[in-house]
Write the structure tokens for this entry.
Amino acid sequence: LVNIPVARMEGGQSLISTATREDIVGVMVLFDREGANGKTVNQLADYAAMRAFARTRDARGEDAPDSILGLFDPANPAPAEGLTSFDRAYLTTLYSGVPHLPGISKLLNVGRTLQKQQQPEE
């Protein structure tokens, strides 16, 4: 980096709001050819989107949410066809609101966002 960003603001720093934020500059998602065999292009693209736009791990095991992140779990007999409601709520929550809040603070609201998305519009 040649021009390193510097945060200059008065009274904005606290334990809740940070003075700086992390922006995605570049991402590369690689797939093992054998692991990707049998997966659709949409599944791979949605999986790559979740891995690129959020700090995530693969969803594995019984307690794993219904997510495209379970795409490569050998114990998952029917992986998601694309982004699930959980995935959309996760990304919506992560990228909504004030950009200077730590991601973990935002992700505490994924359940609430998921409920809002699943309620029929009145």
